[in-house]
TrEMBL record:
It comes from Arthrobacter wenxiniae. PANTHER family: HEXOKINASE FAMILY MEMBER (PTHR43085), PSEUDOURIDINE KINASE-RELATED (PTHR43085:SF1). It comes from the Bacteria. Gene3D superfamilies: 3.40.1190.20. The lineage of its organism: Bacteria, Bacillati, Actinomycetota, Actinomycetes, Micrococcales. SUPFAM superfamilies: Ribokinase-like. Pfam families: PfkB (PF00294). This is Carbohydrate kinase.
Length: 300
C-alpha cells in the first residue's frame, strides 16, 4: 500500500518543455509494478486530460487505480526546471485529499511519503491510517521534503517525527536530512530516527552512495556508476527497489549482508533511472528479478 499524491510533472529544460506523470508515491507504485510487484494505487486525481494521462501511464505498468482516486476537480501539477547539470527545482500546484480509509484491508507493506504526509486535509487522513495499521504491517516512509509546500521547519520536523514514529522503514535523502536537522550530521540524524522506533533508516547522498542502518548494523553502499541525464524520479526509483527488496525479508532480520543486497539493488535502480529522461524506473528484467512477485496494494 503506497499512500500519497499522483500529479503531472511539467518539465522545462534549456531546449524544450514536456509533461509526464509523476508524484513521488505514484512513481513508487509505478516502480514497484515495473519490478514485478502486483500493485494497487489509491490517489487523488481529476477526470481531466492530465488525470487520464496518469491513469494510462499507471495502467501501462500494470498498476490498478482504485475508483476512489477520481476525487479532484483539477489534477495537481509540479513544474520542474532542469539545469544543464541535470538537477531540478520545483513549483507545485497541488491539492491533496484522501478518500476515507477505514475499510481498507491490512496490506503486507504500506509505503507513503512526500506531499501526502504534510499537506492537509489528506495528511491527517493518512496519519489516522498509519496509526490504525501500525504494528499490523510493515510501514515504509520517504519524506521527500518539498520546502515550498511546508510551513516552518520546526512544524515540518514535528510532522516528520510523528510519521517516522509510526514507520518501520524511513528513507530520506541527504538534502532531506540536512533540512530537517541542519545542525546534525547524517549518522546523528540516523540515530535520532532509529530512536523514534524505525527498524531501518536509509540516507541517500547521490553519487556518494547511501547509508543503511539498523540498531545493530550500519553500512555504506556506494552509488552505481552511470551517466546522469535527468535526476527526476531517481529517489522514487531507489525507494521502489528498496521496498521490493524488503518484501523478501522478515521484520527484524536485516544483517549486514541483507542491508548490502538491499542497498545495491536500490542503487542500481536509481542509476538506471537517471541515465534516461523522465521518471522511467527499471523493469524486473533490468535488475535480474523474477516477475509476478508478492502483491503490495499501493495507496498513494
Amino acid at each position: 500500500m503506497v499512500v500519497g499524491e499522483a500529479l503531472i510533472d511539467i518539465v522545462h529544460t534549456p531546449h524544450e518543455s514536456t509533461e509526464h506523470p509523476g508524484g513521488s508515491p505514484a512513481n513508487v507504485a509505478y516502480g514497484l509494478a515495473r519490478l514485478g510487484v502486483s500493485t494497487t494505487l489509491l490517489t487523488a486525481i481529476a477526470r481531466d486530460p492530465r488525470g487520464q494521462m496518469i491513469h494510462r501511464h499507471l495502467a501501462d505498468a500494470g498498476v490498478r487505480l482504485m475508483p476512489e482516486s477520481w476525487s479532484l476537480a483539477k489534477t495537481s501539477t509540479a513544474t520542474a526546471t532542469i539545469t544543464p547539470d541535470g538537477s531540478a527545482s520545483y513549483v507545485f500546484d497541488t491539492t491533496w485529499q484522501l478518500a476515507p480509509t477505514e475499510d481498507l484491508p491490512t496490506p503486507l507493506l504500506l509505503h507513503t511519503g512526500s506531499i501526502a504526509a504534510f499537506l492537509d486535509p489528506g495528511a491527517s487522513t493518512l496519519r489516522a491510517l498509519l496509526g490504525r495499521l501500525h504494528g499490523s504491517c510493515r510501514i515504509s516512509y520517504d519524506p521527500n521534503i518539498r520546502p515550498s509546500l511546508l510551513g516552518s521547519q520546526a512544524e515540518a520536523r514535528s510532522v516528520f517525527e510523528d510519521t517516522a514514529a509510526l514507520s518501520d522503514v524511513v528513507k530520506l535523502s541527504r538534502e532531506d536530512a540536512v533540512w530537517l536537522y541542519p545542525a546534525a550530521g547524517p549518522h546523528e540524524t540516523i540515530t535520532t530516527i532509529l530512536g523514534l522506533g524505525a527498524e531501518l533508516v536509509v540516507v541517500t547522498d547521490g553519487a556518494a552512495g547511501a547509508i543503511l542502518a539498523t540498531r545493530e548494523h550500519r553500512i555504506t553502499v556506494p552509488a552505481a556508476p552511470t551517466c546522469v541525464v535527468d535526476t527526476i524520479g531517481a529517489g522514487d526509483s531507489y525507494t521502489a527497489a528498496l521496498v521490493a527488496g524488503l518484501l523478501d525479508t522478515r521484520p527484524g532480520t536485516l544483517p549486514p549482508l541483507a542491508l548490502a543486497s538491499l542497498g545495491q539493488m536500490a542503487a542500481t535502480a536509481a542509476a538506471i533511472t537517471v541515465s534516461r529522461r523522465g521518471a522511467q524506473p527499471p523493469t524486473a528484467a533490468e535488475l535480474n528479478l523474477p516477475e509476478n512477485r508478492a502483491s503490495v496494494p499501493a495507496v498513494g
